[in-house]
Amino acid sequence: MFDVSRYSVVAESIVSAGRALYKRGWSPATSSNYSARLDSKHIAITVSGRHKGQLGAADVMVVDLQGRPVQSDCRASAETLLHTALYQVFPDIGVILHTHSVNATVLSRLLPAGGPLKFEGYELQKAFDGVETHETVVTVPVFENTQDIETLARETREWFLEHPEQPGYLIRGHGLYTWGRTMADCLRHLEAFEFLFECELATMRVRP
Questions:
Q1: Are 37 and 87 in contact (CB under 8 A)?
Q2: Are 57 and 101 in contact (CB under 8 A)?
């Protein structure tokens, strides 16, 4: 059983994040899903199909790390297994945010198949946990979009078991997944990603 008091606090943080991310245009038209860890066996996650700018406490439910609802008749996000896979790989992360911004979606479609996005030389790379200098490379894998979430969850789990230092990934034509120990950490990562996506797209526009 999960701690109801902790669930209440976590659900409110998800609701607040949803309203902020919707206002920035990063979670349009009921897209996106957010989650936060409750304990070693449970996470809180947004209910499927809910408008992220209008979330309330009833739009956040609890699932176990196999993605099964706990004390709820609601249906969790269709991409719940992409969340639980990351919580299983990274015991220290507490929050995952998946968004559908224009920049993430367009950039993911422009990148060649099979190759990751790499950030190099940007000062803002230091916004990511564990990155202390711009003289490093932040690698963002791009997975192909699919409705086969079980397969995609397995692919992401295997990739991050081998590359645990990277802070997020893209799904082509779909959006971004990023995470952090706290909601504040995760929101910082998301904001950094969006800035860096914008820089990459601007560079593509002016580069001969």
A1: yes
A2: no
* Average pLDDT over every residue of 194-207: 94
The model scores a pTM over 0.90: yes
Closest listed residue to residue 192, CA positions, set 118, 117, 124: 124
- CA distances to 4, 11, 136 from 175, in Å: 31, 23, 24
What pLDDT sits at residue 208? 62
Contacts 24+ apart (CB under 8 A), 40-46: 40/91, 41/2, 41/65, 42/2, 42/70, 43/83, 43/84, 43/87, 44/7, 44/10, 44/11, 44/14, 45/76, 45/77, 45/80, 45/83, 46/14, 46/18, 46/76, 46/77
Tell me: pLDDT of 180 over 90. Answer: yes
